[in-house]
Structures are given as structure tokens and as C-alpha cells.
Design goal:
With 422 residues, the protein is α+β, with helices and mostly antiparallel strands. It folds into 3 domains: 80 residues, no CATH class; 98 residues, 2-Layer Sandwich (Phosphorylase Kinase, domain 1); 195 residues, Transferase(Phosphotransferase), domain 1, CATH 1.10.510. It has 15 helices and 17 strands. The strands form 6 sheets. The chain has a 6-stranded mixed β-sheet. A 3-stranded antiparallel β-sheet has the order 1-2-3, with no helix packed on it. The termini are far apart.
């Protein structure tokens, strides 16, 4: 027999010839990858697989497959190149981190809004008829707070537009109020405002609960507050009869609240700043969000201007409906004297009641603008004296001697009818 060994690049063939007419060919596959692993020094150059690739044996050959993230031919030096260039990867990583951060910020903001909504009684108020605005909606309504129309101790008021109608949006700034009163009390206050409806009460439209202290949306009353008209930037000539009408309208609002069919409600913070005036100078009592229904407990706290608060309440801590009567008496005094509750370091109610019995001293405290403009009219001095008398009754220290708001209103209406007849 004839044995002839032939070595090729991809196989070894052993040809054994048993006869000239019938040769037998035997072929064996070479595992190049195994040879590279067993003897790298000898076979790495013979069967090259460069960095970034991995050797894979195939029938009669081998492949250098590029690793994940690369492509090309690993048999060639630098043949495996990144699918995405490193600078692009860096940009994508940075973008991913930024995007992840933004998602976290958005989620945190959403959780915070949801937390404020629940804490302020959102789920409870959903069952009422109040319109609940999102913070984004209020920003749009107020044009990002572009038109500030007022500021008080507990909040800032901005003018806005909702459904093509002007509205006033109150942004509270005293966070401690929200923390101390709790959602049940806030829900009760909103419910109280929804239950009342009167021409001389500012109408609540809705609220926003996605903030620490809820924001309230009211109807817009164009002529500002009585405080501003009497003492502030909007100060203007105010005829005596118009002042009497303002007193009557304010008394109507308080009488309605005190005798509300479903529950008695006190205001708790009657003062000129909380009496708004419309185009016709008709008064609308506002800011009775701190009102509470007089039902179960006798002792309750109120947030009010110290110049207008009932001294009996200061002593006893017991706020009654006639505590509103006391504050209303000071408002009437401001209408006829055009002096603030505290002026030149003096207390208006104390100064006026001290001189009330002296006609000359009392009349010297009246607004001189009225006396100079209307002194010749027969009703002028009588009207001022009667209004002064009603105010002094309201300021009685003995609560039992004070009139009710209904009684004070009736006296004012009778006075108006008498003056109109002259």
C-alpha cells in the first residue's frame, strides 16, 4: 500500500491507496481556537484574533467574532470597531443621567402636589360642589401672578380671568395656619362658604389644594376695599348717604350669616379691609374663611385684627355673635369719622365713646369733609348722630346690652328711610 501525507492550510488528508483503482481519502478538521489557547506563542500569529474579538471554530476554518458593542472582522488589526463611537456614548450617558434626574424631580413634584392635595382635604372636597383648580390652572388664570391687587397679613390677592370673567385669587403666605388648623377645619370653612349666598357676600368660586396653604378663587369686586376708599390709595369723596348704604349692606351680610337657616355663622374679622365695594359702591363682605359655625363648643380662637377685636373676647376667650357686632360698631365709627381704628396712637372706640355725651366733642370727631359738603342739608347732623348712637350701642362692654346684628340693621334701615323722606 502507498501512504501519501498532504498538509493543507485548512485540513490534513491521509490518502491510503490500497489499489490504483480505489483510493481511500480520510480528512481531519483542525480546531484553530484550541491551538491558540494551548500554545499562544506558536499559533497566535498563524491564526490571529485581535483585541475586541473572540475566536470561534468553524468547519474547515475559524472566525474572530467581535464582542458585544463592536462590529467588523477580528482577524484584522483594529478590525473590531465600536458600534457607537465613545464620544456619542459619553453624550448618551450624560443625557441618560439628566433624564433620570428630571424624572425624579417630576415624580417628587407630583408626590408633593398629591400630598398637599390629600392633606388639605381634596378627597373630602371632591364630594362638594366647589371647583377644584390645579396649581397650573391658577398660574394660567393669574397670568403667573402678574396683577397684584392687594396684600394682607395672611396673603396676597391677584386679579385673574376665568371663563372670560374677572376673578380674585388669594395666595396665602402664612404656612403655620395650615399646619395648625388641619384639613377637617379647612374643609369645614370651605363648606361654610359654599352654603352661604347673599348679594352682600363675596362669592367663593373654587380653590387650589396642591400647595402648603390652599389658594382660594373669589368673584372679583372692582372698587377695592372700604379701607382703601376711606384711608388708602383709593381715597375719594364719599357722600353721607353712600356711607349709610355701605353700613346697611354690611349689616345685611352679617345678619344673614348670624341667622343662616342651616347654622349660625360668625365672621370673626369684620373690618373695612374685608368689606369690598363693587361698581356702585355696594358692599360685599369678604374673607370669612376663618368663620366657624357656632354649634358645639363655646371657646374658639379667631384670627382677627387686634384693633377691631371684642375686648370681652380678649378677656374670656369666648367669641360670640355679638363679638361681630362690636367690630361692626368700629366700622360704623370709621364711616362717620374717617379715622382708623387706631389713629395717632389712640383707640378710636375708646376716644369716641369717651366724648360721645358731649355734643361738641362728638361732632368734632365727625369727618369734616361731610360737614363742609353737606352741613346745610337738614338730615346731615341727625344722620351722623343716629349712626354714632348705633355704633356706641354696638361697642357696649356688656355684651347683653349690645344689639343683635338684625336689630342694628333695622335701626339703620329706619334711619335711611327717614333721611330719604326729607
Amino acid at each position: 500500500s502507498l501512504l501519501n501525507l498532504l498538509v493543507w492550510d485548512w485540513l490534513i488528508c491521509l490518502i491510503i491507496l490500497f489499489s490504483i483503482s480505489s483510493p481511500i481519502i480520510i480528512c481531519a478538521d483542525i480546531n484553530e481556537c484550541k491551538l491558540r489557547r494551548e500554545d499562544p506563542a506558536k499559533y497566535s500569529e498563524l491564526y490571529p484574533c485581535y483585541g475586541g474579538s473572540k475566536c470561534h471554530d468553524t468547519e474547515g476554518d475559524y472566525r474572530c467574532k467581535c464582542r458585544l458593542g463592536r462590529r467588523g472582522d477580528g482577524k484584522i488589526d483594529n478590525g473590531c470597531q465600536p458600534i457607537i463611537p465613545p464620544p456619542v456614548i459619553g453624550i448618551l450617558v450624560i443625557a441618560g443621567v439628566v433624564l433620570f434626574g428630571l424624572v425624579l424631580v417630576c415624580l417628587r413634584k407630583k408626590w408633593k402636589l398629591k400630598g398637599c392635595y390629600d392633606r388639605n382635604g381634596g378627597q373630602m372636597l371632591e364630594k362638594t360642589s366647589v371647583k377644584i383648580f390645579t396649581k397650573q390652572e391658577l398660574d394660567k388664570i393669574t397670568n403667573n401672578k402678574s396683577n397684584k391687587i392687594g396684600k394682607g397679613a395672611f396673603g396676597v390677592v391677584y386679579k385673574g380671568t376665568h371663563d372670560d370673567q374677572p376673578v380674585a385669587v388669594k395666595y396665602s403666605i402664612e404656612k403655620s395656619i395650615s399646619r395648625t388648623r388641619g384639613k377637617d377645619e379647612f374643609v369645614k370653612e370651605i363648606t361654610v362658604q359654599l352654603q352661604v349666598s347673599h348679594d352682600n357676600l363675596v362669592c367663593l368660586i373654587g380653590c387650589c389644594l396642591e400647595v402648603e396653604v390652599p389658594m382660594l378663587v373669589f368673584e372679583f369686586v372692582p372698587n377695592g376695599s372700604l379701607e382703601s376708599v376711606l384711608h388708602g390709595a383709593e381715597r375719594c369723596a364719599l357722600p353721607l348717604l353712600k356711607r349709610l348704604d355701605i353700613a346697611i349692606g354690611s349689616a345685611k351680610a352679617l345678619t344673614y350669616m348670624h341667622s343662616h337657616s342651616r347654622r349660625c355663622i360668625f365672621h370673626g374679622d369684620i373690618k373695612p379691609a374685608n368689606i369690598l365695594l363693587d361698581d356702585n359702591l355696594m358692599p360685599k363682605v369678604s374673607d370669612f374663611g376663618s368663620s366657624e359655625s357656632v354649634l358645639k363648643t363655646k371657646h374658639r380662637s379667631v384670627c382677627a385684627d387686634m384693633g377691631y377685636i371684642d375686648p370681652v373676647y380678649m378677656v374670656t376667650g369666648n367669641f360670640r355673635l355679638k363679638s361681630d357686632v362690636y367690630s361692626f360698631g368700629i366700622v360704623v365709627l370709621e364711616l362717620i369719622t374717617r379715622k382708623k381704628a387706631v389713629y395717632d396712637g389712640k383707640s378710636l372706640p375708646i376716644e369716641f365713646t369717651n366724648c360721645y355725651e358731649d355734643d361738641n366733642a362728638r361732632r368734632n370727631m365727625y369727618d369734616q369733609d361731610i360737614l363742609s359738603a353737606e352741613a346745610l342739608q337738614p338730615h346731615c347732623m341727625e344722620c351722623l348722630d343716629r349712626m354714632a348712637g348705633i355704633a356706641v350701642q354696638c361697642l357696649e362692654y356688656n355684651i347683653d346690652k349690645r344689639p343683635t346684628m338684625a336689630e342694628a340693621l333695622q335701626e339703620l334701615i329706619q334711619l335711611r328711610a327717614k333721611v330719604a323722606g326729607k
